[in-house]
Amino acid sequence: MFLLKSVFHSALSLAVAYAASLNQVTNFGDNPGSTNMYIYVPDSLPTNPAVIVALHPCGGSGPEYFSLYDYHTPADQHGYILIYPSATRDSNCFDAYTAASLTHNGGSDSLSIVNMVKYAISTYGADASKIYVTGSSSGAIMTNVLVGAYPDIFAAGSAFSGMPYACLFGAGGASPGNTNQSCAQGQIKKSGAQWASFVHNGYPGYTGLYPRLQVWHGTADTLIVYALLGQEINEWTAVMGLSFTTNETNTPLPNYTKMIYGNGNQFQAFSAQGVGHFVPTDVDTVLDWFGITGTLPTSSTSISKTTSRTQLPTTSTTAISGCVVAEYGQCGGIGYAGCSTCAPSYTCEQLNDYYFQCL
């Protein structure tokens, strides 16, 4: 019996010793953002694995985000590498406001994260065509930054409760305590062409494809207000030359609306009714979008660098006189026959053909 116990404990110790874990890497290369790197590498790694970069919210860390959402169990099953950067400045918020971070090879946190990716490619033979990024809140804002400034590095992104690329430019800080709340409170509104020009300026001369992108936002978010979803839509549909196609209600969860643009392979937006800050990450949907568990698009959407947008068709709705729509309420759209007048200080803005909202 003693021998059997000894063998059992030895086998258990061996299993624990060789089980994959999250480890810090300190020698990944140039680190202009003083950003810490944590990596999870499955014990069984296929040739040329994919890489997912997962970005924490303000005040968090890579290890905390690793514990919050379980990307590592599917990593063991499907054989992809996980990178968890940790911001160390500005209340542990990622730099999405300086010209350095917003510019391709400009420096700061964005370049540090890209160098982490390059480390994984060189060290583990990761597939450079299968690099993905996702994040929540500050991590979602940085997801937008990386998709805009480094479209040559990332193949796809999924951003939960973020804001458009360059929306924080010049804000002077990225933390919730920053006195400049113009972007977070939805006071910065631009056309698709204006947003697209910011993205193009982040990597001048780039003519290739931009990464496929999902953006998610809760209608009850007061920290990064829901209006920012509309601005993200304006930005990326203009960059990608896409127009609205259709809505899918109660997708992927009840009270969520999935908004599809183009053929749905390049850009999607999700509105979470009644959800605050931040929208819980739907790991299954993200992995499907990245092609880890789903099927990658068979054809690429060409990217137009024009600054013009296709005009969406006008809606034919019958307004009900004498009623007023509160902030974030629906005020128009194809087939809508409710109130169309927004409360004072709000305007009826078009998110897509089927949904106008008082913002």
Describe the structure concisely for a colleague:
This protein is an alpha/beta fold. Helix content is 27%, strand content 19%. Helix 7 (192-202) packs across helix 8.
What's the structural blueprint in terms of helices and strands?
Elements: H1 2-18, E1 22-25, E2 36-40, E3 51-55, H2 62-68, H3 72-78, E4 81-86, H4 99-102, H5 108-124, E5 131-136, H6 138-149, E6 156-160, H7 192-202, E7 212-218, H8 227-240, E8 244-249, E9 256-261, E10 267-272, H9 283-290, E11 330-332, E12 348-352, E13 355-358
Parallel strand pairs: 3-4, 3-5, 5-6, 6-7, 7-10
Antiparallel strand pairs: 1-2, 2-4, 8-9, 9-10, 11-13, 12-13
Helix pairs in contact: 7-8
What tags apply to this protein structure?
359 residues, alpha/beta, Rossmann fold, 2 domains, 10-stranded mixed beta sheet, 19% strand, disordered N terminus, Plant_Biomass_Hydrol_Est
**End-to-end distance:** 72 Å
Q: Residue-averaged pLDDT, rounded? A: 86
Which structural category fits the helices and strands?
A: alpha/beta
Q: Could you name the CATH homologous superfamily of the largest domain?
A: Alpha/Beta hydrolase fold, catalytic domain
Helix-residue proportion: 25-40%
Largest beta sheet: what is the strand line-up?
1-2-4-3-5-6-7-10-9-8
Radius of gyration: 22 Å
Organism: Oidiodendron maius (strain Zn)
GO cellular component, one term: extracellular region
Protein name: Carboxylic ester hydrolase
GO molecular function: carboxylic ester hydrolase activity; cellulose binding
